[in-house]
Here is the input.
Amino acid sequence: MPKPMPTFSRGDIVKVPFPYTNRPTRQFRPALVISGGDVADGERAGFSLIWVLMITSAQNRGWPGDVALGDLSGTGLPAPSVVRTAKIATIEARHAARLGRVGHAVGAQVLRRVLAQLGVEAHAER
Here is the structure.
């Protein structure tokens, strides 16, 4: 019997093999799910993708759009971190492992910054 495909929701923090744009390697690192990959319909059943944003140390040089994760409780992160909204990737859900979650306020702030970078109106949030 095949192992069930993991599902994730917006706001989950996961550990994933995050791709780099400047080198042909992937490094396992934390990321924030901005779109879960819950797929159950016939043609795509068993194939699930998630959209994630890189999470990096707060000690790194800041980028425009970064969102600080001030309260780490429940996140599964060991040190002060930021969500790098400019670094988005699509990952197969089967390669992700849940670490924790961010609170609603942080999730909403991240989504607003992503939408602004994409040039999408903020009222498109749900």
User: Anything to note?
Assistant: The longest helix spans residues 104-118. The chain is about 10% helix and 35% strand. Helices lie at 104-118.
